[in-house]
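Here is my example:
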Amino acid sequence: PHRGADCAPQRRRRRRPLFLEKSKGRRPHKACASPLAPKRSKTKRKMQAVCLSTPAAIVRSSVRGRARSKSVVAPRRGGVPSVRAAAEAPAAAVEASELDFAAYIAEKNAAIEQALSDSVPEMYPERLHESMRYSLLAGGKRIRPCLCIAACELMGGTTDVAMPTACALEMIHTMSLIHDDLPSMDNDDFRRGKPTNHKVYGEEMAILAGDALLSHAFEYIGRETPKSVPAERTLRVIVDVGKCVGSEGLVGGQVVDIMSEGAEAGEVTVETLQYIHAHKTGALLEVSVTAGAILAGAKEEDVERLGKYAQLIGLAFQVVDDILDCTQTSEQLGKTAGKDEAVGKATYPSLVGLEESKKIADKLIADAKDLLKDYDQEKAAPLIGLADYIKNRQN
């Protein structure tokens, strides 16, 4: 896509790529497994270990599927309208679920925006809190807070129970955006159609605003979660959120992403890219869903099932993000387009091609929605709609 000269990113120095090596004698650590979660049997652990199909496996599956679908049966005379109707029915269902999600977002967003504003009041030192509020209240779809609230309501909880954690998750997400945009990281000038935090307040203040939002998030969960929620649930949420933000989650994914930039062709594999996306983006989406379920008192099997759903939509979100980065303009995205290619970053389109990337995203979304089929479909509608929205979003 076309980008103005003033938006052209500076090319960073090539860094030595990070290779994912198997640790001797140790089992890979699940990104967001809580130390406070009840013990599970070996069978359940095995099921959890394979819950998320690897992109490579999805690619192989789609290739086999194409081979099997070569034989075509000619339709009977008069069957064209029924074939067309059958093709249009799923599209209509997806459109309806997206409309349900849009309505849910509109319903919840006013309360979320007010709660976010109240969570970070204007106070001394004014410059710091102004910087925090600038990015926290800069708009956006508030997907993480809505996920938290929707999962809580699906499991029998209320908005009031989930709101403090929902706000905290948005604080953490905002911190990650502020830091990600810094010159030493992605060096971006725009975010959500506005100048990035460091462009307005300077690098020093942007770093400190992000730090303040991160620490405030944990304080906010502990202090503002209603006392009607058992303390052990609140504690588990705090532990899970901390784990999914640190070296085994968001930060770990960011590190592998940075160290993989500028790598030669073939040095970054699809599995490495999956690790980056599952941790850098997916971990926070996953804990948004599981935290809401935990606060509502969900059974452990439901927490695990919803966690798998969130892992799938989290990876799909980033696959679609990779697709949009090379197909949309900066104006459409609200941020600099084409940056991944400019800095030599591995993406799904660069590794498997644009069309295969779209098929991978479709498969991830279909698998995620399938995990929700046993729940009350009216209560699950926001989560189903979010999956369809991720698949079809344009920015």
